[in-house]
Amino acid sequence: MFTLSDKRLFLFLVFGLFLINLILKISEIHFIDISEATVYNDFGKNSAISEFLKILFYPFASFMGDTLYKFRLSSILATLLSIISIYFLGKKLFGKEGILLGLVVLASSFLWNTIARTGVGEAWLFLFQSVVFFSTILYIKQPVFKWRLLNILACILGLMIHFIPTLIFIMVYHTLLYFLHPKGKNVLTLYSWLSILIGGGAYFILNGQLWTTNGFIFNWSTIDLKYVLAFLLLGIFPWIAFLPAALIHLYKKGHNKEELSIIFGAGLLGALCSYSIVLILILALMLGKQVQTFPQKIYPYRNWVKTLSILHLILVFFLVLYFILYGITSYEGKGFYAAIVTGGMYWSCALISVIGIFGNRMRFTVGGMAFSGLLFLYFFWSMWLPIVLPIPK
After folding, report:
1. Among candidates 388, 391, 384, 367, which has minimal Cα distance to 17?
2. Does some domain include residue 307?
3. What's residue 83's pLDDT?
4. Is 306 a domain residue?
């Protein structure tokens, strides 16, 4: 079985590059999404932005002046707190190796990287909902006061940021665990009703209503589920060869009442129903689990992974060609150079991962997939977006 805990240099490079990507050209790229523009333009006004979200943004907004990246720094802080909480809570459930692989997948995710450095509410919502995801299971397995308190606090804070989506996530996730998990009845003593009452009451007092949409990219009123799923697939694109294996494994083991599949399934459905980007966290953990067991001789989905890795490589080749042509025609020399470096780096790393998959060399597999995402994002933020989305002078 492939292990990461003894590969400190690799982990240092992965998370070092991830941190560089968070701040790279942060002040030289215009608004990524209309939701970010809304936060920037409406902050401090009587707008439909959650008041608690404004409180979380306020320390940076008050000291950074009229700068575009002040809200982005708040999202980066939330992301760093998310990494810490995921690692320390997740390793109690999935082991050190499982959570490290999940974090490597997450760090190279296009979707999470974008949310992590964009001045919108998703980064803070992701933090609190991910704590809800982990603390619920920790309490079910070990019903002690510290996990109950952590769960209640995370639920309340998530509800105060974005009430309706967090309410749906909690209700669907907890209900499914109650009926499907062997110790599901412990959910009742998490006192979810108390969290909902306090969080909902605080949200209503602060906002005067229970539904606000501004400041979030993923909303029922602004985006369809098909686009959420499309962004999700794009988010785990470097690791897509393992996606069918992860879903088939979830389906098969779920029928056999395997605990881990019940946890993943309940979390996925709760996140899907609420349009929560905790989806990307749960998928990252599922993909990490498949990568971890891939070297085993009895691994049952090897042909799936090999086939998808080749198809992915072919698809990326043609996408890079289109990317280069688009760069030339739209932005001339600068566009050509940015496109060939960005796309070429991704394809080269994807090729290394294919070599690893067919040669059963996990260093190549994991390294190729991780760095295809991380290096693509590095050149995307540093070379491509400053051309496409420059700040108007």
Report:
1. 367
2. no
3. 97
4. no
